Amino acid sequence: MRYIVREYKSIDKKSIFDLWKKAYSADEINKRKAQFTRVADENPTANQKNYSTYHVIEYGDKIIGYIGKMPVKFYVQGKLLDGYFLHDGLVDPSYRGKGLGQILMRDVEEKANSFVIASWMNTAQYNLTKKCGWLDIPGFHSYKKIIFIDKYIKIRNFKLRNSIQMLYSLLSRGLEKTVNSFEQALYKIEERDSFETEVNKFSLRISKDYGIIVYRNASYLNWKFSKLPGKQFKKLLAYRNNELAGYVVLNTQRLRNGKVCGTIVDILTKKNDTASFVKLVTQSIKVFRMYKVDYVVCYIVPLKFRKILKRLGFIRSKKQSPVMVTNWEHIFKKDYISNINNLYLTDGDNDREFWQYNE
Predict the structure, then answer these.
(1) H or E stretch at 192
(2) Which member of 81, 127, 293, 318 has the greatest number of CB atoms within 10 A?
(3) Where are the domains of the chain?
(4) Is 155 exposed, middle or buried (CB count within 10 Å of its CB: 0-12, 13-18, 19+)?
(5) Per-residue pLDDT reduced to its tens digit, 269-288
(6) 189 phi/psi in degrees, rounded to 5
(7) Radius of gyration for the chain, computed over Cα atoms and rounded to the nearest angstrom
(8) What is the CATH number of domain 3-136?
(9) pLDDT digits (tens, 9 = 90+) for 289-337
(10) pTM exceeds 0.85 for this model
(11) Fold match, 3-136 / 142-319
């Protein structure tokens, strides 16, 4: 008997769910089932072009491993191209150490008709991806702003701790006001349950200014952030002179350590529109303060936007979030694709938000 590697079919779900029993709890499996269907069977780019969303490896009559390959549309230096995100891999613990991960990775590389980006990897996945010869794209960091500093202060005196928090809040809000310009009054912020077709024109108009960016049209954004099982996203749109100037997607999550994290999941403005970026980020901070989050996290690449985050009191993480790419040689020069500044990436790219749940 030998291993068979092939692309995923919808009828594979039962076998994949059986495989999960060896890796996840019953509660986790129940949460993952609806998300897997969303990722595997409802991807708008995959359905439009009949692309596969996973690769599986069989032994006998059962699936013993799989890895995801998420098809999305990218704008690459002004041209609309297909591309992929590598994601969501698992090998049966009984079959580990046999090189099956490399076999799956090789199948992804051979069958993908364009470049494949890997991000949000744990250490094992990163080491596997590196072993397979993927190109590193260094320099991707998160930015963190603490909202309630008293949670981080080891002082038993409640009054003193409360006074420090009040002083910190005053300083933080003052910092945010200094970054805001007189233009901020020109904006109108609206909350939406879903994205409408106006986002298509907006995204089409501004995406061509970025180097490599996912084409964030309404069907893609609604697939990612609207009516997602187990997730609650707040979607805010910014209008200036009655014209869409940008949007932001927010999420809160209670972590195992008891802290509440607010994440700027996705944000988009015109490349040099710092005023709209400031408006959306400061509005996000206001929302998170109402939700009593302990800190806010944002992933962003453009240098101008990173500088604004720092001015707003965000601190860059010391640890990088790994990003790698394969099948790039026929599209990019190495110097271009290996420069993180040529990519537009946020927390919402790839699959991470599908597998994290609100509590």
Answers:
(1) strand 187-192
(2) 293
(3) 3-136, 142-319
(4) exposed
(5) 999 899 999 999 999 999 99
(6) -105, 130
(7) 21
(8) 3.40.630.30
(9) 999 999 999 999 999 999 999 999 999 999 999 999 999 999 999 999 9
(10) yes
(11) yes
